[in-house]
Amino acid sequence: MSSRKIFAGNRRRAFAAQDLEGRTVPLQRLVMLIFFLQPIAFGAWLPRIPDIQAKLELGTADLAVALLGLPIGTLITLPFAGRLVSRIGGRMAIIYGFIFFLAVVSLPAFAPSAMLLFFALIVVGVALSTVELGMNVEADVTEKATGLIIMSRCHGFWSFGIMAGSLIGVGAIAIGLSPHWSILITAIVILPVALIASLRLPKLPESHHAENSQAKTGFKPPSLALLGICAFVFGVTMTEGAIADWSAIYLRDVMHAEGAQTGLGYSVFAFMVAAGRFSGDYMKGRFGAVAIARGCGIASLAGMLVVLLAPATPLALIGFAAVGVGVSVGFPLAVTAVASLTDRPPASSVATLSFAALSGFLIGPPIIGFLGELLGLRVGLAVLLIPLFVSLLCTRFLIPMQKDMVADLVEREAV
Predict the structure, then answer these.
(1) What pLDDT was estimated at residue 391?
(2) Cα–Cα distance between 204 and 181 in angstroms, integer?
(3) Taking Cα atoms as reference points, which of 101, 50, 82 lies closest to residue 254?
(4) Per-residue pLDDT tens over the stretch 184-202
(5) Does residue 345 belong to any structural domain of this protein?
(6) CA angle 238–243–244, rounded 5-degree value
(7) Membrane-crossing residues (predicted)?
């Protein structure tokens, strides 16, 4: 049976869930809602990092050490989280992960010292790895179950969620609300909505989880294609993490922005990431994954140069916007690519990719912080040009689906 017939048959499967008002909505829309809700509270934390730094009287290097807690917590947990998600499925991982994550996401803002900030971020990293992996596995399973290409838009909603959270953080700064209360209130508001949405995810047939339980227990070296895709996504997410943690401080210390203006860099960046992801599925069907990835790679390099050379805040914001477009579709394209590899189960490949992606997202900021302490934050951010260039070289590993099949699916979908 051809891939086209498989996708067309799967598309007619009656996977649906009830929305918050009791109406029936397609499964893919419910998954997109979950992608939107998950990062809001974390986004509210990002513009408050300068406030936490000032409250604890931390230098750039001290803050970088404290920020290491997040990648440490994530990276030590993700291998175990991968096996857990393979066993219980993406739906249950999302439900439990949401509860854990939203319960602890405000802890760093309450930390009274750099050491406790470090340990609080470890806890957040542990929670983050579980819910993020569950979401990506569920999105991949949903694509297979419905026959619809949704991965890029799922991450577009994630970007809108973190952008919404960052705007909440900026608004909290403007009204003088303390970091810990603003993040805690955001998490409390999000939790019941997230739980309702997660619980309404249907339990997919065992056939969709069977491949996860069939993974061999012995070690199997990753293929060259998997390594290449992981290298590609590492540079993309390293840039995302750096902009998330350091854009506000860069605008404050280097561009001399003041007040709520310091948070606009990440808000602009996140908006353009979301915009790129919402158009990503269509663009992939029209031009192919490799061509889109190369164009975006060039845009991210150009945007980072604008940020580094900008003499004033407005031009720096334009640079952040270009970087956002450049990194927008990288991770969604990578998830689809590794899930298509035939040398191992998709869940295993997605877990490996998530490990590489989160490594870049969470390890990059502390490295930039150390360099910023020694050489200045402008030089620290300039290091991102190296992984972005490597990502551009690795785009050849993003072997796309046949363009006619992708275009047909995009054309037939009504979201």
Answers:
(1) 96
(2) 38
(3) 50
(4) 999 999 999 999 999 988 7
(5) yes
(6) 95
(7) 30-49, 61-81, 93-110, 116-135, 156-175, 181-202, 223-243, 263-280, 287-309, 315-338, 350-371, 377-399
Residue 366 near residue 314, CB atoms below 8 Å: no
- DSSP β-bridge partners for residue 18: 24
For residue 27, give the amino acid letter: L
Cα separation values, 51 from 159, 179, 409, Å: 23, 7, 47
Confidence of residue 171 (pLDDT cuts 50, 70, 90): very high
d(CA 336, CA 398): 9
Token pair belonging to 393? 């070289």
**Total number of domains in the chain:** 1
Tell me what percent of the chain is helix, strand and coil, each rounded to the nearest 5. Answer: 80, 0, 20
Does the residue 264 lie in any domain?
yes
Record the tokens describing residue 176, joined without a space: 């003088």
pLDDT digits (tens, 9 = 90+) for 39-85: 999 999 988 998 999 999 988 788 888 988 988 888 888 777 777 87
Residue 212 belongs to a domain: no
Give the CATH number, domain containing residue 131.
1.20.1250.20
Which residue range forms the structural domain that includes residue 328? 26-204+221-412
Please provide the DSSP assignment of 108-173 as one string: HHH-SSHHHHHHHHHHHHHHHHHHHHHHHHHHHHHHHHH----HHHHHHHHHHHHHHHHHHHHHHH
Domain presence at residue 186: yes
Spatial CB neighbours of 178, under 8 Å, sequence gap ≥ 6: 109, 172
pLDDT at 402 over 80: no
Q: What is the value of pTM for the model shown?
A: 0.73
**Average predicted confidence (pLDDT) for the chain:** 82
Give the integer Cα–Cα distance in Å for 93 and 403.
33
